[in-house]
Specification:
single chain, Rossmann fold, 3 domains, 521 residues, 6-stranded parallel β-sheet, 20 helices, alpha/beta
Length: 521
C-alpha cells in the first residue's frame, strides 16, 4: 500500500485537482538497473569513483602536510651549507683584514709609502722568501755569506711587488739596498739558464755603475750552473754574436744597448724583466730616444718593468706611467730626501780662492779617508787634482776624458785604500757603491737638490754613518735654500736666516766659475 492510500483511506480525494501538491510529497523516481549484471557493473564503477575521490582527498591532505614538511629538509640543508660558507667567507675576510692591518703597521714602522691596488705585504725577514715564494736555499745562503741579515725598507716592499709580477717605480735614499731589491726577484724568477735569448735587461746611466751591478749580480748568483750574466762592453756591442751567445741577464748603458739592437740585431723579444737603475739620471742625460728603442725592443707582453732611483722628479714619474701598466709606487722615507745617517753641514768660503783654503784647512784638522770630493766639471776636476797633488795627499781623479782602463784603475785604487781622496763629477760617480766612504765634500755647490742627494748618498750606506760637507760662496747664496730644505728634512740643524731665503724652482745652478788657482799652502 502506498503512502497516498494510507493518508486518504475512506475518503474521496480528487488527485487531478491536487496533483501538484501530491507531487511535492512524492519521492522522485530513480531508474533501477534492468538486470543483475548491470547492477554488478555499476557497483565497481561506483566503488572506483569513490576510491578516486578518497585518493584525491588523501593526496590533497598529503600535499598540505607530509610533502610540504619533506621538501623543507633540503632547504634546511642548503641553509646550513650557506651558513657554513658564510662563516668560512667571514673568516677569510677577517684574515685578509688582519694581513692588511699587519702590512700597514710594518710599512709605518719602516717608513714605506705605497700607492696602487692590491699591493703585496712587505717582507718580515729574508726567510719569508722561502716560505712565501719558494726561494732556493742557494740564494739565501749567498745572501747570508755576503752579510745580508735583514732586508732594508726598500727590499722589504719592492721584492714582493716584483715577485708578484707587478711593475713598480721606487724611490729610496742612496745606499739603501736598491740593487738587491731588483736583482733578488730576477734571480728567483729566472730559475734555470736558457739558450733562447736575453731574459732580463738592466740599464744604468754610466759604465762604472753597469760594471758594479754586474759584479753584484754574479755574487748573488754564485753556484748556479749554466746561468750567464753579461756586461755590455764596447767590443761586445760592436762585434758580439748575439744569436749564438747564451745570456740570461744583460747589464748595459743605453747607448751601447741601442747600438747592439740596431746594428747587431740583438733580440730582446723574450725579456721578462726590464730595470732602469738611477732612472732620473737616465732621462736627464738625454737617453730618452735610446730608452724608447730598448722599451720597444722588449716586446714580451708579460714583461715586468721597474724604475729605481734615489730621487723621483714628477717628470720622470709621468714618463714612467706611460710605459707601465698598473704600476706600484714605492717611496721610502720622504720623497727626494737624504739619509738621516749622514751628518750634514755648510761652510761659507766667500769665493773660489777661499774654497781651496777651506779644503786644505779641513784636511789639516781632520783627514778621515776615504773621502769623495765632487766638482762641477771635468776641467775643474783636473785643476783641483793638480792642486792637491802638491799637498802630498794621496789623491785620485775620475772623469770622462780618461780611458775606461784609467777610470777602472782609479776606482780600484780608491776601493783598495791606495788613494785617500777621489775627485769626481756627478755623472761618473752616479750610483757607484764605494764601501765605507766616511766623508763626501761638495767642493763645488751642487746644481740641484737631486744632485746634492745623490752626491752625499755615497756616504752613510748600508746602515753606516757618514759625513757631508758643502762649501758655498756668494754666488751660491740664491740656491742655498734648496739644499737647506733637504738638510732640514733629514733632521739637520740649519741657521734660521737660511730658511728665510727665497726658494728657486726648476732652475739648475751651473755658474761660470773662476779656475782653481794655486794658493801658497
Amino acid at each position: 500500500m502506498g503512502i497516498d492510500s494510507i493518508l486518504f483511506a475512506g475518503t474521496r480525494f480528487d488527485r487531478k485537482k491536487f496533483a501538484k501538491d501530491i507531487a511535492k510529497f512524492t519521492k522522485k523516481h530513480v531508474e533501477e538497473p534492468n538486470s543483475i549484471v548491470e547492477a554488478l557493473k555499476e557497483e565497481p564503477i561506483a566503488r572506483l569513483e569513490s576510491r578516486k575521490k578518497g585518493k584525491q582527498r588523501a593526496e590533497s591532505e598529503t600535499v598540505d602536510s607530509f610533502h610540504v614538511f619533506k621538501s623543507s629538509e633540503p632547504e634546511m640543508m642548503d641553509l646550513g651549507k650557506r651558513k657554513l660558507t658564510e662563516k668560512k667567507s667571514n673568516s677569510k675576510i677577517k684574515e685578509l683584514n688582519r694581513q692588511i692591518e699587519m702590512a700597514a703597521l710594518a710599512r709605518k714602522k719602516y717608513g714605506i709609502h705605497v700607492a696602487g691596488q692590491n699591493i703585496p705585504s712587505p717582507l718580515n725577514d729574508f726567510a719569508e722568501l722561502s716560505t712565501r715564494y719558494k726561494c732556493k736555499p742557494r740564494l739565501l745562503q749567498n745572501l747570508s755569506e755576503l752579510g745580508f741579515k735583514e732586508p732594508t725598507p726598500i727590499q722589504r716592499q719592492a721584492i714582493p711587488v716584483l715577485l708578484s709580477g707587478r711593475e713598480c717605480f721606487a724611490c729610496a735614499p742612496t745606499g739603501s739596498g736598491k740593487t738587491l731589491a731588483f736583482l733578488c726577484p730576477i734571480l728567483m724568477k729566472l730559475k734555470k739558464g736558457s739558450e733562447d735569448g736575453v731574459r732580463a735587461v738592466i740599464l744604468c746611466p754610466t759604465r762604472e755603475l753597469a760594471a758594479q751591478t754586474t759584479r753584484e749580480c754574479k755574487k748573488f748568483a754564485k753556484g748556479r750552473k749554466k746561468f750567464f750574466i753579461r756586461l755590455m762592453t764596447k767590443e761586445l756591442s760592436k762585434c758580439g754574436d748575439f744569436k749564438n751567445m747564451p745570456c740570461d741577464i744583460l747589464v748595459s748603458t743605453p747607448l751601447r744597448l741601442e747600438h747592439a739592437i740596431t746594428k747587431r740585431k740583438l733580440d730582446l723579444s723574450r725579456v721578462e724583466y726590464l730595470v732602469l737603475d738611477e732612472s732620473d739620471k737616465l732621462f736627464e742625460l738625454g737617453f730618452l730616444e735610446q730608452i724608447d728603442a730598448v722599451v720597444g725592443a722588449c716586446s714580451n707582453p708579460s714583461i715586468v718593468r721597474a724604475l729605481f732611483s734615489a730621487t723621483l722628479p714628477d717628470s720622470v714619474e709621468e714618463l714612467a706611467r706611460t710605459i707601465m701598466h698598473d704600476a706600484v709606487r714605492i717611496i721610502v722615507g720622504r720623497k727626494n730626501s737624504a739619509s738621516n745617517l749622514i751628518q750634514q753641514k755648510l761652510i761659507f768660503a766667500g769665493n773660489e780662492e777661499g774654497k781651496l783654503v777651506a779644503i786644505r784647512q779641513f784636511f789639516a784638522e781632520s783627514l778621515n779617508p776615504p773621502i769623495l770630493l765632487f766638482v762641477q766639471s771635468k776641467e775643474r776636476a783636473k785643476e783641483l787634482y793638480r792642486e792637491l797633488e802638491f799637498a802630498n795627499i794621496r789623491t785620485g781623479v775620475i772623469h770622462a776624458d780618461l780611458t775606461q782602463a784609467e777610470r777602472e784603475d782609479a776606482v780600484d785604487s780608491f776601493r783598495e785604500g791606495k788613494v785617500w781622496i777621489l775627485i769626481a763629477t756627478d755623472v761618473v760617480a752616479r750610483g757607484m757603491d764605494f764601501k765605507g766612504v766616511n766623508c763626501v765634500i761638495n767642493y763645488d755647490f751642487p746644481e740641484s737638490a737631486a744632485a746634492y742627494i745623490h752626491r752625499i748618498g755615497r756616504s752613510g750606506r748600508a746602515g753606516r754613518r757618514g759625513e757631508a760637507v758643502t762649501l758655498y760662496t756668494e754666488a751660491d747664496l740664491p740656491f742655498l735654500r734648496n739644499i737647506a730644505n733637504v738638510m732640514v728634512a733629514s733632521g739637520c740643524e740649519i741657521p734660521s736666516w737660511i730658511l728665510t731665503l727665497p726658494k728657486l724652482r726648476k732652475r739648475k745652478h751651473r755658474p761660470q766659475r773662476d779656475s782653481i788657482a794655486a794658493v801658497p799652502y
